[in-house]
Amino acid sequence: MKISFLSPAVCMICGTGASPQEMPVCDLCLYKLQSLLTERCRNCGKPPRACVCPRPAGTDFLFFYGSPLSKRLISLVKTGIDRREADFLAALLIDSAGIRAANYDAVTFVPRRKRVARRYGYDQAKELASALAKRLSLPLVPTLVRRGKNAQKLMSASERRKYSLKSYYARDDVPPEFINKRFLLVDDVATTGATLEACAKILRDSGIAAKVSAAVLANTELKNTEVLR
Ligand SMILES: [Zn+2]
Ligand SMILES: [Zn+2]
What CA–CA distance (Å, rounded) separates 181 from 89? Predict the structure, then answer.
């Protein structure tokens, strides 16, 4: 995690504009961010908050992945954001997607590979999940372990689906009070949705989750030929 001692804080997106006290982004970047959050889905024509395209575990998301700003935000999140920046993104996601604490018992996340988490010094999905949990006043409960060495980047959708189920397994140390509960599963990006689908299935099959809904920052738009069920 990045720790910033500089004051006044600079904008997390452009790194130059000064950010006001309550927000880690400058006015210009906030304006650009607002248009990213209302960018329309190429399939259903609706913005992220209202997109009706089928996604695994009913994935809520904040913006579509593809524009330079969306890529910039995700790269920031992957390489290290501080607590204030994570809180800001979590608040945007909760408000925009209308995530309600009453629908969940706990928040969990898709873990990063240990080696990668060590390289960056943190796990971005865990960081986001922690910010979401705090904001929703829900407990953060680690439920999944990641194994495997292959990065999914170069795989096709069907390869990803097969691979994802083998890449994760359920932790055996989930406290009994969190067994058979309703989980909000958090990740930074959903590409084909294969990872979220696999993790949700593992959580349900292991008995840890009675229900799983996913929330991510960015979602790649589905092509018409590849609608996930
Ligand atoms: Zn800025
Ligand atoms: Zn859509």
Answer: 25
Lowest mean pLDDT among 50-64, 74-88, 150-164, 176-190: 150-164
- 48 lies in some domain: no
What pTM did the predictor assign? 0.87
Residue 223's alpha-carbon distances to 43, 68, 145, 212, 227, in angstroms, are 7, 20, 30, 24, 7
Distance, CA 4 to ligand 1 centroid (Å)? Answer: 16
Span 201-209, average pLDDT: 95
CATH number (domain holding residue 93): 3.40.50
Q: Do 125 and 187 meet the contact criterion of CB atoms below 8 Å apart?
A: yes
Between the CA of 76 and the centroid of ligand 1 the distance, in Å, is 13
**Nearest Cα to 218, choosing from 136, 133, 137, 124?**
124
Neighbours of 169 (CB within 10 A): 13
For the stretch 98-129, pLDDT in tens is: 999 999 999 999 998 877 777 777 889 999 99
